[in-house]
Write a structure and sequence with these properties.
Blueprint: E1 7-12, H1 17-32, E2 36-40, H2 41-47, E3 53-55, E4 67-72, H3 74-87, E5 91-95, E6 105-106, H4 110-118, E7 123-127, E8 130-136, E9 139-146, E10 149-154, E11 159-165, E12 168-175, E13 177-181, H5 189-192, E14 205-210, E15 220-222, E16 228-232, E17 239-243, E18 247-251, E19 256-261, E20 266-270, H6 279-289
Parallel strand pairs: 1-2, 1-4, 2-3, 4-5, 5-6
Antiparallel strand pairs: 7-20, 8-9, 8-19, 10-13, 10-17, 11-12, 11-16, 13-14, 14-15, 16-19, 17-18
Helix pairs in contact: 1-4
Length: 302
């Protein structure tokens, strides 16, 4: 019986020429290795690579694909997550942006990344996501999800909001916004707002007030089983909900935004074995933020 042909889906930030050129190189290497390579319709014309299967830009594009390789920055990967999550397809990011915390490889590692996929020298880890519901008088007005964060932000004037944890009121804040983040999102918007960095292996939810005018306005780390709610006070100008900086919903005064852990994770392909000590993430922090480690000697070995 013939072996099932392996399939990859390639997506790229086609607004950047380096991403388009990288996509062509990746496609050529996968085709040489005998893979079926899919490219989505909106990108196929600009990538212009022969031998690919052009598919509609829908979640079905990622179905049965071994990996979805993403060439771009974190924004490109978050867009690709919308396709990969329903299909359960692992994302493999190659960073062509700036920080690129979600990416597994840099542009210089492009050939090695392809070779490792071909040789099946990678592992897959699951990253927590959150489900987000907007309610008014018990009626669901909007329902969505996030990998990094759900951010409730002021529209015009200062936002007036009451935070709730597991059905109990926590505090009222006058603020620019409140961020509900996952460990994956702790190095994104929540980090910019003063939230803590949380290792991806830690299961938790983050609640980070943004520029709050209150004595108690510290970032909070709560149980992954907790339910977080933010109530926009009546009489205010309303707010805006952003999920991963991609999905936007206008929030009228008086609505309630509920955030809890979602059942469906996002899967990420890792080219290096995941050390249970979290050491690879430590190295990533040092590299991405250019942290000073001069003078470190490590444990003295006998």
């Amino acid at each position: 019986m013939d072996a099932v042909k392996r399939t990859v889906l390639i997506t790229a930030h086609t607004g950047r020429e380096p991403a388009v050129e990288s996509a062509r190189r990746v496609i050529e290497r996968f085709l040489e290795a005998g893979f079926t390579v899919r490219v989505m319709e909106p990108e196929a014309e600009e990538i212009a690579a022969p031998g690919v299967d052009v598919v509609p830009a829908r979640p079905t594009a990622a179905e049965d694909a071994e990996v979805l390789m993403v060439l771009g920055g974190d924004g490109t990967l978050l867009r690709a997550a919308e396709l990969a999550r329903p299909a359960g397809t692992p994302l493999l990011g190659v960073n062509l942006g700036h920080v690129g915390f979600l990416a597994e490889a840099e542009m210089a590692d492009l050939s090695e990344a392809v070779d490792r996929v071909v040789a099946r020298r990678y592992t897959v880890e699951e990253r927590m996501t959150v489900e987000v519901n907007v309610r008014a008088n018990g009626e669901v007005l909007a329902s969505t999800w996030a990998l990094n964060e759900a951010s409730v932000e002021k529209r015009d004037r200062m936002l007036e909001v009451v935070a709730e944890i597991d059905g109990h009121p926590l505090s009222r804040w006058g603020c620019d916004g409140v961020i509900c983040a996952t460990p994956t999102g702790s190095t994104a918007y929540a980090f910019s707002a003063g939230g803590p960095v949380v290792w991806p292996e830690v299961e938790a939810l983050l609640l980070v007030p943004n520029s709050a005018h209150a004595l108690f306005a510290r970032p909070l780390v709560v149980s992954p089983r907790s339910a977080i709610a933010l109530e926009i006070l009546p009489g205010t100008t309303g707010a805006v909900l952003w999920c991963d900086g991609r999905r936007r919903f206008d929030l009228p005064p008086g609505v309630r935004v509920e955030v809890r852990r979602a059942d469906l994770p996002v899967r990420l392909a890792r080219l290096h074995d995941v050390d249970t000590t979290g050491a690879p993430f430590t190295d990533r922090l040092v590299a991405k933020f250019d942290l000073p480690v001069q003078g470190w000697r490590g444990r003295v070995r006998p």
